[in-house]
From TrEMBL:
It comes from the Eukaryota. The keyword DNA-binding does not apply. GO terms for biological process: methylation. Residues 220-276, 498-524 are annotated as: Disordered. This is SET-domain protein. Residues 264-274 have a biased composition (Acidic residues). Keywords: Methyltransferase, S-adenosyl-L-methionine, Transferase.
Amino acid sequence: MPTINKILVGSRVVGVGREDARLALGMATVVPEFLDWFQAHQGTIDTSSVDVINFLPSEGGRGAVAVKDIPEGHVLFTIPRDLTLSTRTSSLPLRFGMGAWKNAKLHEGWAGLILCMMWEAAQGSSSKWSGYFDILPTSFDTPMFWTEEELAELRGTSVVEKIGRADAEKDYKEKLIPAINSRPELFLPRDIHTRYSVEMYHVMGSRILSRSFNVEKWAPDEEEVGDGAGDVSMGSGMDVDLPDGAPAPPTHSSHGTDDLEHEGGEEEEQEDSSDIAMVPMADILNARYGSENAKLFYEENYLKMISTRPIKGGEQIWNTYGDLPNAELLRRYGHVDVIQLPNGGQGNPGDVAEIRADLIVSVAAEQHSLSTDDTHERIDWWLEEGGDDVFDLYFDLEIPPSIISVIRLLLLPDEEWEKIKEKAKPPKPKMDAVALTVLHEVLQRRLKEYPTSIQDDEQLLMTAPSLNLRHAIIVRLGEKKILDGILTKTAAALAMESNTKKRKTTHEDRPAAASTLKKSKRQA
Ligand SMILES: C[S@@+](CC[C@H](N)C(=O)[O-])C[C@H]1O[C@@H](n2cnc3c(N)ncnc32)[C@H](O)[C@@H]1O
């Protein structure tokens, strides 16, 4: 029997021939039946270049691997549009009746797609997508499924308030249950507590949240533009780099709770929920910050996964979920990215720490005895002028000019506040000692919103007893490092301000002293 050298460096197999790469990763295809199903439904895959194997859990678990060197621009696999699963491709909306579908508000948000997925899954092997359902996850590491105790570990981060479990369940009760009960011939009563249960609703919602794409309809005139291909990325708010002159691309949509939360809001007006689609095979690709080497592009009848960089044999084929901060990765996908940070240490370079405007208002009001009516009036004006109510801080450790501007707005004397209103222009972000003192206190208080310190977390990380706790620590640690870095910078700027002030005072004092001296000499 031949011996097999398994040497893993990151996600890359080294020390083995290309042909051996498959074997070396212990890797017979992990989902052969799925690949058969995919090809039987006119999906194509270049099996001489791509396989699906199990990577380490920290590398994404199941994912796609290059079994030989792949050049940039290579088509890895193609998916017929009618193999994507959406409210457009499932036959349920037509069977239900489009009018009734709309009356039940199933055309808004994700409720319709969730119901289609529940119904298709309930059809068993007679559903076109049965081979796809067989490989979809049934459990998730997302905070949606955490205990209260585990959620408490995320205190201070923005994750908890964005989970939206209650909103999602409201949709289940108000839209899905009435629709299901109204059509017993479509939704068999014996299936209601199993295939149409609230638990199944969350499973389908989480599958959408972590795996769906935003696939826009093909518009005929797009053919005339460029090469007729746009790209489709995975994950909400994903970066979408169009080939020159290409039509607007489908983007991997944000899933589940996000849209349920925003239902009726601005985002929903812009998003056509029938664009949200599950894309078999494309959703087998994992993602890691800055690692994208393949992307989904679309044409009239097919979606195509194409390499965007050369990929070495044995390397993982990575899509992008938009290089999201760990808080968002955890909320949507149930994992976090930990790689080398540009300024040393490990973490996610895309992390974001949020500061709410109300924290700034309360610190400024306390330090300067501001009246509530006055601060409300100024903040309302700030928001009306398009100012932020949450400020994002990043690993570049820059103090956002808008934070300084809003602090100065709150502290302006009345006459200047009147002028600002007249000019309709917020104050310049001048970092004077007064503004920096407010910011310094804001950052200190913000850091206290987390249950632990940076030092505590670094210790806890070494012994974290569960994956969820480890993820919570990594999310809050990344945010705290940003806040702490900016706190240090603010303290330094404050020290410099006060030195400058001292020097100025001394400088201003000096001529006075000199003239006193001259005077006394003259007097003498
Ligand atoms: C679109 S699916 C990717 C394929 C998935 N691994 C599978 O087995 O089907 C997204 C899920 O893959 C996992 N994943 C993707 N990238 C990951 C990474 N860098 N680290 C850990 N898990 C990752 C997460 O569980 C995420 O919810």
